[in-house]
Amino acid sequence: GLTAIFLRGGSHEMAIIMLVLSVIWPYAKQLLTMALWFVSTGRYSLQQRGRALFLLDAFGKWSFYDIFTSIISAIAFRVTINSPQDLAFLPPRFYHVELITIPVWGIYANMIAQLISQINSHFITHYHRKIDEEALLRHRHVVGEISEVESISSDSSCTDSVVSFRIDDIDNKSGKGRIKHKHLAHNPVKTTNHSVNDDDLRVALHSYQFALDWGEKGQILRAGRATNAIAAIIGCLAFLFITCGCILPCIQFETVGITGLMIEAGQGGAPAKQKFSILTMFGSLWNQAVFLDNTLDYIGHIFLICIFGFSMIFVPLLLASLLLFMWFAPLNSFHRHQLHTFIDILSAWQYLEVFLLALIVMNWQLRELSEWLLNHYCLLSEPLVAMFSAMSNNNILSVPNAQCLLFVSNLEPGAFLLVIGSMMLAVLHHFVLHAVVQQKKSCERSKYSNRRDSVDINCVKRGKDRRSKNDLIKAIHIRRPQFTDIYRNFLVYEDSMK
């Protein structure tokens, strides 16, 4: 495979990256995903399984690294040599040489397997979300039963009125996700639940009021005008930089040696250099399909162009637009949840970072790789080595051209624009989705936790809570950093907005 080729060619760094991302990671991801699919929630909680599945789904795209590397190599190693047209002693089109690297079934099989794995991951994540939503609904039902208790008789013992529930405690035998709970032992006095159902309330994240879990009670944070302006600028610049990076050249390939001189002679003395943007890479793949003029090659190259265009151009630009829409547009809970899920799926198909890594590593290792693959055979011939040495010593050929063939590459401005745009998109993605998660948790807490907490507080005040110290320690969960913690310096208190 490519890993063995890179090792023999001296590109050890590229071989290590290829081994990790293209050999170990795809199989590890698939095995971990299947293990999470079959493991019970008694061993691995629902929340832990969700976090693991979302991480595997988000990082599954890195297994495409070897495919990008193969395609960039095929574009770089494309050489066309034409006979000079300005030499009278040579007949027209006296010679024509094409050096071409053809993608074959191995690349297509690998890519199809990666796509199937990614789609399979989406299905498993979808069913996990369904289970999570069912558990949440049953959790709301239990909390609703608690909220019906308005008061508890002073003669009753709170230790006998235990309400216990766990979202993760699912009856695996029934397969229905039944949450086990005990009802209050007292005679409840039913009252009307005054909790506000704001599922249909349309609110924009940029104006949402985030309640702090720490500090003084009632403190509210929200994004200021400067923060909203920064978010809009980052989103627009990410869109602009990615668009320009796809149009402008991102890498240049130069052919050095006797082959390079022959290319220059056939081009009327023009340098043997080619600059490629993402769009011109697609054009090169199409020209290669036209040159091969085979139905299967047409299908394969069109498939490559469609996958790369979708994952490197369409998805990043759509993602930047949707993130801005989610931040500024007023949405209700249902539509925001649907858009959040759709953005998670799009993020898994956003391959721009993978392409940039392959491009940077290929630029770093192309010289050594081409020297081993192509120039190595010329160096094995002693007469050729002696001839090149004599021509170099007599200043007939320059030292770089005293060889058969060597490729030299340089990154162009388009690559730097893509890197900056990709980083801006990642920052905007992190910013907006953390706000969405905290907003969703705040809504759930405000609707279903007030009366439940009041019952627990009454029991604690009476001094009747006889839970052991170990049980209390187990009930304490480490609080993860939230949106208001990570981006605290970009938020202002509600009082300061007035």
Automatic annotation (TrEMBL):
Keywords: Membrane, Transmembrane, Transmembrane helix. The chain crosses the membrane at residues 15-41, 62-81, 93-113, 229-251, 302-329, 341-364, 415-437. This is Uncharacterized protein. It comes from Proboscia inermis.
